[in-house]
Specification:
The complex is a heterotrimer. By secondary structure, chain B is an all-alpha fold. Chain B contains 11 helices and 2 strands; from the N terminus they run H-H-H-H-E-E-H-H-H-H-H-H-H. Chain B has a two-stranded antiparallel ribbon with strand order 1-2. By secondary structure, chain C is an alpha/beta fold. Chain C has 2 domains: about 1-80 and about 170-185 and about 195-250, P-loop containing nucleotide triphosphate hydrolases (Rossmann fold, 3-Layer(aba) Sandwich); about 90-165, no CATH class. Classes of the chains: A mainly alpha, B mainly alpha, C alpha/beta.
Chain lengths: ~325, ~300, ~250
Amino acid sequence: MDETCDIASPVKRRRAALLVAVLAALLILPFATQALGYGSLTSFATRIVITAIAASSLNLILGYGGMISFGHAAFYGVGGYVVGILYAHARSGEAIWGLMPGTSDLAVTLPLGLLVCGLLALLLGAISLRTSGVQFIMITLAFAQMIYFLFVSLKAYGGDDGLSVRRRNEFFGLDVRDDTRFYFLSLGLALLWFGFMARLVNSRFGLVLRGIRQSERRMAVIGISTYRYKLAAYVIAGMGAGLSGALMTNYARFVSPDMLHWVQSGELMIMVILGGVGTLLGPAIGAVVLLSLESVLAAYTEHWQVILGPFLVLVILFWRGGINGLISRLTGARCE
Amino acid sequence: MSLFIEQILNGVQLGVALFLLAAGLTLIFGIMGVINLAHGSLYMIGAFAMAWATARTGSFWLGVPFGLAAAALTGVLMEVLIIRRLYARDHLDQVLATYGLILFFNQMATIIFGRQPLFLAPPSELSGFITLLPGMQYPVYRMVIIAAGLLVAIGLYLLIARTRIGMLVRAGATHREMVRALGVDITLLYTFVFALGALLAGFAGIMAGPLYGVTAGMGEQILILTFVVVVIGGVGSIRGAFYGALLVGIVDTMLRAFLPGLLRHFMAGQEADALGGGIGSMGVYLLMALVLAIKPKGLFPAHG
Amino acid sequence: MSDVLLRVENLAKHFGGIRATDDLSLDVRSGELHALIGPNGAGKTTLISQLIGEMQPDSGTIRMNGIVINTLSTPQRVARGLARTFQITELLREETALANVALAIQARQGHSFRFFADARRERDLLDPAMAILRNAGLEHRARIHVAALSHGEHKQLELAIALATEPKLLLLDEPMAGLGAVESQDMTMILKALKGRITMLLVEHDMQAVFALADRISVLVYGQVIATGTSAEIQANTDVRTAYLGEGNS
């Protein structure tokens, strides 16, 4: 709302131009990589696009709402398992609890994944949000671990080994086994999600959420019951992670308790931090950086975490604001 | 019946180990306001150092002090190099920096010792069984763990309640400026507290080594249980950590031991085992949810 | 004028061995500006926190318009017309002054479960917020971020936000604290302009301001009200002189 951040300001125009360029690059990416003979890059880009949704959903509660959840993998993994389990039942022909037949149509599995994750987030959030601060960190981590153990013990769905999804889901009869098609499907859903986030964070709801991060006490004395808004944000974030997980299972044709592991929660947090906390596109940038960094390091050594760990420590100690902060400095003042 | 008592004792033994970790974690948080995810790494480092020294020297009794020293020293280094810079930061920075440390330590352990768990037997003096009741035997080593853990708990209580250092520690938590005004070097005090926490964690790791094997990542498995303990007991409260640890240790052990058997009365054996195992491993988390539903600040909240 | 808007009876709150509020009783009449004075540590801020619901009393009742509000949450009390300002300002530091007030307007308009429309450009929110800032003399600072405002402006903004909730009873926790002489005078003028329209309970150390503004004054010492009366009555009261004024203004 500063004068410098007016629509017509050079800063805003430069950022808009950058955004358009990135979008254009994303749209021609599969064709360009194929033409250049790096076809596998499309697959890698798909992974980034899907992961960015999960990181962005975490950013909603962590960056905008100030709720430091260390259990976001719970929703990511459960979203993945919804697809995996429905597929397993579709193959075996057995109905789930004798009620619902399995399916491998994304038009069913995606909404159902969102629904299940939303309900789970409602339940876990309702309990976790009774606490705050360091207890909230611990309890979200603990609940995610609980879900992890639950799926490890579900031998019917592969237990430790997880479930294979031999064929990607269909989407209204459209075959998305083709990598390029699946890339565009994921990209489309990611753009929808980020568009939703862009609206959300500046809506009445979004302003309340940002206010809660800055001073919950202030929010209460202007008459806002913060709990219900935090819970609603938690549910939306859970659904976002579920969407990402459901896509990821389709992408990898596989789901296992690893998706629920606390290390997964940690990775999502790193992406949010690397990209810049509480910024719209920060998590996407963080996903690009972390996943690229991992695959580059992994090419040199299987023990890449030995490098990533200290790198993370250094980033936290000496380089706040993340990469998005850096971009802001390069393109001019920060505009929200 | 004797199986029941044995499982209770196993629960107490797990509880004692959890207490050693939870006490350090909650002390560090209560006094310095830092949440240290890498607390589990100190547990792992203690165990690895002990296992390594025991293998080299052939003596468990040389391995133990070596493990303790390694954990405490790592703790001091960690505090001086990194944690110290996080006191004034928010929890998010603390979580991520210490998460980075976990990645580093776990991977280092894998590089040095490989992925296979190291197994080592308890020392011959502590192997074998003692007869607790007629017809009921219990491993000496586990009994020693319980005794050692309880002794440490008492020692910790005396240290904090009765000594000058303990007085400073208690005052440092609430009246930082006052402690500073007394001419006490608060930087040194913080390093001491962190080292103490590291020592306790290392001790827990050393005792756990011969029972569960020593492996990279062992710290995080127990760290998350420790979080459950701290949340149930009340953040910042040593007393809460003690009761919470025993509660979690016993409930976890009992559910895992008896739930599948109980369920077998109602359903087929295989399903009962799977479901019992699942609920058994979820049990303490459900307990945590229950406690929080009734007392959001835990059973023994530290302030007010 | 004489119906009681807020009635506090036998309120008690202990912290360990300290009685912050000790069997405290107090009436605030509809329409009056009721000042609450007392030495540091007398429990004034603790009382305000209990009235607004941030702190639960150990015992005693708080009635507004005859209805007990003890069990209501802070937002529920705000909905019934209570508001408070903070001595140590509690503002959204990353937002502009305008956004701080607009958020209070938004809260008053009902729930905020609206997810799409850009609330930063809603005339429904910005126009009334701007009007309030104009009255508070902050119009020209509306689009400045809170972090860049002066201490005096923070204090004015505190008041503006509280007014945006359209309170019936405004609890003011030392609105003059830390202000210079001129700023103090401005604040006094603003409060004077509000007198009669809004009932106010004013906690303040600035005696000049208190005697200039208050219809009635209550003196709080060690968590208890030891005297209530007009300015003249309080200045003449010997108990007050020995317990408080005699010790010198703190």
